[in-house]
């Protein structure tokens, strides 16, 4: 099995951390400042039975200037070209302009979308269930999984779900 996986979501939700922890190498630039990742970064994760090519995209925000516009385009153009989309959100339940924008785009795309709720180390089960239900109601995600990229919690569960779609 082999396929392309793209990671999208608002700046700072942990996209680069997720990719790095899965790949086990520090490829993407991680930072507290949003939008450190300016270009699509590809990396390949190979195991005995499958291979995943990850595309780490710049954070998606409602474009305010030319550079933002360019970054949004880079993220968006990968969506139709991949096998699985990981839409990463964090525990804050902030659904900003960038998220709304992306959710609209995802409705029109046939590629399976796994919603990844990251930073579950910061919340309890009750809040997780609340977030889970909120996204489940949107009816656009093929699967929903909670992880902590930083603490490597549930990463194998996520990888297994990705493999199911390859
Ligand atoms: P990106 O902009 O979406 O690529 O986000 P980054 O991967 O650069 O992460 C942004 C910040 O969130 C960094 O300070 C990370 O250390 C932190 N972070 C990422 N994943 C987690 C997590 O699972 N739990 C916690 N508590 N922090 C995280
Ligand atoms: Mg990043």
From TrEMBL:
Q: Where is this region: G1?
A: 9-16
Species source reads Anaerovirgula multivorans
Record-annotated Era-type G domain positions: 1-166
Residue span of region G5: 147-149
Q: Where is this region: G2?
A: 35-39
Among the entry's GO cellular component annotations, what is one? cytosol
Q: How does it assemble?
A: Monomer.
What residues bind GTP, as annotated?
A: 9-16, 56-60, 118-121
Q: Where is this region: G4?
A: 118-121
Please name the GO terms that the record assigns under molecular function: GTP binding; GTPase activity; ribosomal small subunit binding; small ribosomal subunit rRNA binding
Query: What's its job?
Result: An essential GTPase that binds both GDP and GTP, with rapid nucleotide exchange. Plays a role in 16S rRNA processing and 30S ribosomal subunit biogenesis and possibly also in cell cycle regulation and energy metabolism.
The identity of this protein, by name, is GTPase Era
């Amino acid at each position: 099995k082999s396929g392309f996986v793209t990671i999208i979501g608002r700046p700072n939700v942990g996209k680069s951390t997720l990719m790095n922890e899965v790949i086990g190498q520090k490829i993407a630039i991680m930072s507290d400042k949003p939008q450190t990742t300016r270009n699509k970064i590809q990396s390949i994760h190979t195991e005995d039975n499958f291979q995943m090519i990850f595309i780490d995209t710049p954070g998606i925000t409602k474009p305010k200037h030319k550079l933002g516009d360019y970054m949004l385009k880079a993220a968006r153009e990968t969506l139709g070209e991949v096998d699985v989309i990981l839409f990463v959100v964090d525990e804050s339940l902030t659904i900003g302009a960038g998220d709304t924008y992306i959710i609209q785009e995802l409705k029109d795309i046939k590629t399976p979308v796994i919603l990844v709720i990251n930073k579950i180390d910061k919340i309890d089960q009750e809040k997780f269930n609340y977030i889970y239900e909120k996204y489940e109601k949107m009816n656009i995600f093929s699967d929903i999984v909670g992880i902590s990229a930083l603490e490597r919690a549930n990463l194998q569960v996520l990888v297994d779900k990705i493999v199911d779609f390859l």
